[in-house]
């Protein structure tokens, strides 16, 4: 795998952010609704017992209602929490969104410090945000590498969640970048070749 120039990634981030900024609030809401409905139809979602969600930023697909639905269905739900002393994210269990959520690093909703950490190998499905994705399962994040480190020890199904504008022909990648199992948008769920598997 050939290392990519940081300028390649910066240029792609700029292009995608411009496309997302051009979306109206109505388009964002409609796309998020379609994404949630499409995720809920997937067999891997129905079979998943423990799921790592994300708290969306304004330009990301909103999957929050899926977290609420998972809790109501008795699934184990988790969110990333930033650990300052280690400068990394860990997965922590959410039992009650009214009690367990606070505003964390970068202004993102995350679990409170007393929420129990869940080892990544105890999760079987992860919803992954990003700036751009390609159909080989590669993801371009915001440049900090937090999700790549979080996913490094994850062995279940990692699903990239994106608007259609975020899917491109090629994402510049580096050896440490995590590969996703599938990419899901408002209009399709694309499984990466060789990645589809049955949840344990």
Please sum up the structure shown:
The protein has 200 residues and is α/β, with parallel strands linked by helices. It is built from six helices and eleven strands. It has one domain (6-191): Rossmann fold.
CATH H-level superfamily title = NagB/RpiA/CoA transferase-like
Range of strand content:
15-25%
Number of strands: 11
Q: Low-confidence segments, ≥5 residues, pLDDT <50?
A: none
Which shape, going by the Cα principal axes?
globular
Q: What Rg do the Cα atoms give? A: 16 Å
Average of per-residue pLDDT values = 89
Taken in chain order, the helices and strands follow as HHHEHEEHEEEEEHEEE
What name does the CATH topology carry? Rossmann fold
Q: How many structural domains does the protein architecture include?
A: 1
Largest sheet: 7 strands, mixed
Q: Which structural class best describes the helix and strand composition?
A: alpha/beta
Oligomer: single chain
Distance, first to last CA: 31 Å
Describe the structure.
There is one protein chain. The strands form 3 sheets. Strands 3-2-1-6-9-10-11 form a 7-stranded mixed sheet. A two-stranded antiparallel ribbon has the order 4-5. The protein has a two-stranded antiparallel ribbon with strand order 7-8. It is built from 6 helices and 11 strands. The mean pLDDT is 89. It is of the alpha/beta class and 200 residues long. It has one domain (6-191): NagB/RpiA/CoA transferase-like (Rossmann fold, 3-Layer(aba) Sandwich), CATH 3.40.50. It starts with 5 loop residues before the first helix and ends in a 9-residue tail after the last strand.
């Amino acid at each position: 795998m050939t290392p990519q120039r940081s300028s390649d990634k910066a240029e792609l981030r700029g292009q995608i952010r411009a496309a997302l900024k051009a979306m109206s609030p109505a388009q964002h809401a409609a796309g998020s609704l379609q994404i949630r409905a499409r995720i809920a139809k997937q067999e891997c979602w129905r079979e998943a017992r423990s799921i790592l969600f994300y708290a969306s930023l304004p330009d990301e697909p909103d999957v929050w209602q899926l977290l609420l639905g998972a809790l109501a269905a008795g699934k184990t739900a988790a969110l990333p929490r930033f650990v300052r002393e280690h400068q990394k994210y860990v997965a922590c269990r959410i039992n009650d969104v009214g009690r367990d959520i606070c505003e964390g690093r970068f202004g993102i909703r995350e679990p409170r410090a007393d929420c129990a950490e869940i080892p990544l190998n105890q999760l079987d499905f992860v919803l992954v945000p990003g700036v751009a994705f390609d159909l080989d399962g590669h993801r371009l994040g915001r440049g900090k590498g937090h999700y790549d480190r979080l996913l490094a020890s994850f062995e279940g199904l990692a699903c990239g969640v994106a608007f259609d504008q975020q899917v491109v022909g090629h994402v510049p990648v580096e050896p440490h970048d995590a590969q996703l199992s599938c990419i899901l948008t408002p209009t399709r769920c694309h499984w990466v070749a060789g990645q589809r598997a049955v949840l344990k």
